[in-house]
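Hi F.,

I've been meaning to write this up properly since the lab meeting, where we talked about keeping a consistent format for the predictions we share between groups. The idea is simple: the sequence comes first, exactly as it goes in, then the structure tokens exactly as they come out, then a line or two of notes. No screenshots and no reformatting. I'm using this chain as the first example so we have something concrete to point to.
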Amino acid sequence: MVAPLIVRTRADSDELKKAALSIEQAAWSELGYLNYTRAHYGLYADLLNQYADYQLCLVDEETNYPVAVANCVPVTCSGPDDLPPEGWDWLVETAARPTGPHTMLGALAISVPTIHRSKGYARKMIRALLDLAAAKGLHGLVAPVRPSAKAIHPWVSIDDYITWTDGNGQVYDPWIRSHLSCGGKLVGPCERSMVVDEPLAFWENWSKQTYDRSGSYALEGGLVPVSIDVERRTGRYEEPNVWVAYAC
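Output, unedited:
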């Protein structure tokens, strides 16, 4: 018999907060360099605490432990026509420095442990986010979706990539396809969704290779290459995501 699942939030208990954090860190550990965008490094953790009742956990009631988590923040945004080329970083910065009443829910991440993938939990969390937006009286949900298969094609532009279809004529990327199947509307790319600008040594540490020439280099798990400037001893990674919007 399959144990029932229930959606709870990090605000429910310190134990749930710790478990959710552990799941998120494990799910994204291989892409840890994304933790060093200015928005992530400086604002993200505080926002999760400030809006603990917005951080969702899909909990197995038998073990009382999450099988998936979803992070989001309320933002001031007029809707899909108001979305910039910046994506994830922009949502975090906008939530941290509100300029008016909250109007939309901004989705930041859905994390599912490897052992629980391919069970439909990620789509459950998309629907839970939509339920949360409605419950909070917000007008909809916007998400800078990280296209899951783009890492296989780091040299393809995001503009070309989102036009690809599979053998059935559906959107090629499986994670974008999941969002569209849940009622999302593909708005377009956010070319600078997460920007990491760090010293050369930082990138050599993460890539486990030495850079002696300036140029573009593919990263393990990266959606696009990192741009290395040997003379300045820096590297810049500008990750493109895809804006998807839902109406409540």
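Notes:
Helices lie at 14-27, 38-50, 88-96, 121-135, 158-161, 174-181, 200-207.
Residues 121-135 form the longest helix (15 residues).

If this format works for you, I'll send the rest the same way.

G.
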